[in-house]
């Protein structure tokens, strides 16, 4: 009996640590009978998915294909299977508690910081991160904030012992915040309107100068190493993507001109609230958009009250590759709501499978990880999950299984553990206490 | 000509006399001042009495006689004013003219200052009742001149600084004499504003509602002080009481603030004269209902420079519309028979005053009303009978205008104040315009003088060769400079002369310096120039006011309808559960029938495949609030109420309706343990704040616990206010509730014994007594279980219960205790991670509390989330698996229960208010859209109208941008596309830190 108590105590102790990363998958897995949302716009009913060595080997119609023998067979009848959702432009693991400065590592001082690398500060044991996984978010682009050039991001998977293990694509892109041509006055309770930013030209010139210098440096003999200029290498070759944060029509237009002038191979607009107004220009220049948080109010009181819900569709209809990002207030904790941003886009006119692409294949393409992630297709990483129902709807987003590179990850979290603990407490108390008035 | 005019003014002879009993050391004493007769003028003796060919006889500072039958004494100096129009000089009752403004002492500390710096005065330094303008004078001749040139003769001056800003004086703009003569009334008015004094850094009040509460408490204290209640002296209260019979002038500003000032006035029996801002037409009915006399500025916004289309995007429709509408404001006020005077206040340049006034008149503001608003009305308000009209015995304060003052061509030429003549532009009684034969140095030329009477031009020619000529005429002198025959040379003929009987003659100095005489004989009258073809006058377009006056406003306030929803899936929220294929009839603002196949009545809406629910009630909202949600200047602010500051013009009302929200409980922020009182409103978009308030709903107050009230995230400078720990928070409550008990005892014993002097009425403790008497209920911002438990224990000790814990993210940890206490939990669906105290926040909170028997609601605390509360309710299906009906009640019936309005709203039940929403789908799914949102039987949102409304906004924007561009092309003044800040209040005390703090962590 004593021994049992001891074991119980030990288990409960263990259960309150972070979720243990799942070990490498050595077994083959077969998922049968579910509806697979492939992430490429297609659905496969009664789908048969075979996973071997952490990779998807087969995605087939269950009525036609005959399953071979697998170590693990998951019957998913009535359930839905999705590729793991991706959170781009994210600060997961860089800040734990917004208001606690000691837990905040998302930005560095200085203006031009391409050499600042988010990956080394990425905390794989963030409790916030583990609360995003049970909603289907399995990958993220860890991105620094602040300054004019904030730094360099890396793409990670969300179940790892340390940042090195977590890397999916290291140093994938450089993030820049384009100046705004106007400034907003006032504060949230008393917005005071706008005024032109008189320093706009000066600020954009400073960016150009920095790019000129870094290009000059890369062509020089580099006798003396210049760390920031050195870190800029790769934008012209396409090894790195340039992510530029901007929302205004004028700013985005200027950025596209900037891209041409500087021969930037891969450019992504982050934010892009007004991108739909110059969609053709974006399309012509092969620029994709990581659209700002869908669950937001319009910028202006004059705008369609539901405009933020509709922009993704307008851009998609114009042939632009759109992913959804989530920067802003409480952005880390809101990561778990990314599926519902896509759901809202679907509610406001987008085809559901196209809406799904906004958080799967499109984002994977934008981040340059689409060879392995973003769709349920043979040859790709088995980074996927099974949900009781439609995962874009909070009503039915309930995960039973999730896999990253074939490893079956825990769907528990600090939060589910507290839930279980207090549920047990009240169940042990028995019936509801009498309510006095 | 222009330069000359200025000179004339400077040369005006000073005919004034010093006080006759004063010694004279710089010469002999002179006391004679001749009588002056201004003759042959058209005189407006008042706004509606006009006398032609009248004479005004002026003796000393007064009008001795006026009329057409005046006998002019032989010694009188006569001024012929033929063709001129005379009006009483204008009166401005709202200026800071000539006031020596006290300077604030620099503050060294960055920490907030909670106490007053002065002693012997009121506890709050923003009450500056003791400031008397008449003791801080610095008569400014330059400003006086500018005002005189605009037509003003008398002004009221005060220092517009502080919530009570002290007294004002009435004085004339009489440069010729000194204050002994100028001052007509040394203490005429007591002034109020909603703004803090620039002289004090005292942190309270930091919000509009705080200012309002402070004014109320001041009235109570003044009454108590007057009755002898205070044991100590208070210099502020003493003068405040002494000054209560003066004019009480309130600088309200925005139209809604007029209603707010008037409300305070009604409560304390004071009829404020209220200074408006120019946007009264947006809520004209309500402004009219106040019956207040107004003082109106006429500063029309400059056109926005919209030539940069990107920046133009940033100007909102409401601002563009207001640019169009503002010049009509006075007309609308006049049409509504609102009594008002005009002021130059708020104008950057007093010269714009006449320009704007003329524009208002051109657009329909009646001339006589304009004159009255500048003369007899302000005189009457000021109770100053001897100004504002021209009659025997009145002060000789009048302006001489070259004609009708409202005609752009005409100018104010003289302004007489207290019998002193101030020439602005010399009257030119003789007209020298005509065609002349000019003989100069034995050569004949043609001279032609023409142009406007006030701006004449000369042309000299010989055999069709013209000579460059410049002429100035200052009767009787004529001077001309003529460029020599040799056009390349820079030599000139200089001519001077004067008008004689036959023409003009005088002396000339030739190019070579030789002096000769010249004559010019008139041969013909000047050619009358044809009126230049004026640009065809476009009929001005007036964009009608909408309710509210902004994008998505209604053309008129929407009305109640009888509506039959046919064949809906009805989520009753009651025992009946969800009824399929059911009809619901609403009539007279109530739900009257629920059933199958109801007979047709009213407007029938086919709701097949759709879902009808009660409207969403947001238990914790901060939308629709003017100028500050926190009164954080003290650790308790029970005296303030959001009901004072409901803002009916917030776009978030409409956005919330589009998300199916029909009511919102507007809460004070969480900056202090005892916050302010709440306002429960229905989202009646277009209606005024008073109509939105649900008056008979039980009253609430916001309390708060944890990091915000102990200022954890406010920075290191904010370490002065008690409490700084959770331990201290308990003691704040102990302190206030025990004081409230003592307070109540004091009043009870006074009421029982009918004692002599009533105890001090303390709004804050009154509010806390209401809590103890179960007449007011607490909704408390809370996170951590320890403090939640503490507050329940405090309440139990004082024998009441907490009604609601809001946020309550650790409620699940003490749900059993909450259920036992009987407190509800109004929580977020899934928020966490934003500060330390939400580490253990879990999205299963709602489900756990619900399962243990706590009444649970899901609230927003956020203008974005509030329009998706249906989705937030949907999350509770995922987190904890509550039933669909229970989840839906989290945003409808349960908040209604927590707010104790569930007898009226929150479910679909016969007899309840018709606050319903028609959804496209199951409202708990992400795919559901609110299609129709109905409040009190009035459709306030209809998705079918959305396209039309959006198109309308775009159409009006386009039209107005074109009008703005047109205005710019015409050379009208423009401003950068900057939205005019409508707020008068800023978070002064907490500054930038406050902004950061509120934006990030004030949840």
TrEMBL record, chain A:
Chain ranges of the Amidohydrolase-related domain: 347-402
N-terminal signal peptide: 1-17
Alphabetized UniProt keyword annotations: Signal
Entries under Pfam families matching the protein: Amidohydro_1
Keyword Signal among record annotations: yes
UniProt keyword annotation of Cell wall biogenesis/degradation present: no
GO molecular function, one term: hydrolase activity, acting on carbon-nitrogen (but not peptide) bonds
Stored Gene3D superfamilies: Metal-dependent hydrolases
Protein name: Imidazolonepropionase
Organism in which the protein naturally occurs: Flavobacterium terrigena
From TrEMBL, chain B:
Pfam families: Amidohydro_1 (PF01979)
Gene Ontology MF: a single term: hydrolase activity, acting on carbon-nitrogen (but not peptide) bonds
KW Ubl conjugation (keyword) present: no
Species of the source: Flavobacterium terrigena
Position of the signal peptide: 1-18
Keywords: Coiled coil, Signal
Protein name from the UniProt record: Imidazolonepropionase
Amidohydrolase-related domain ranges (all copies): 331-416, 848-932
Matches recorded under PANTHER family: ALPHA-D-RIBOSE 1-METHYLPHOSPHONATE 5-TRIPHOSPHATE DIPHOSPHATASE
Coiled coil, from the record: 943-970
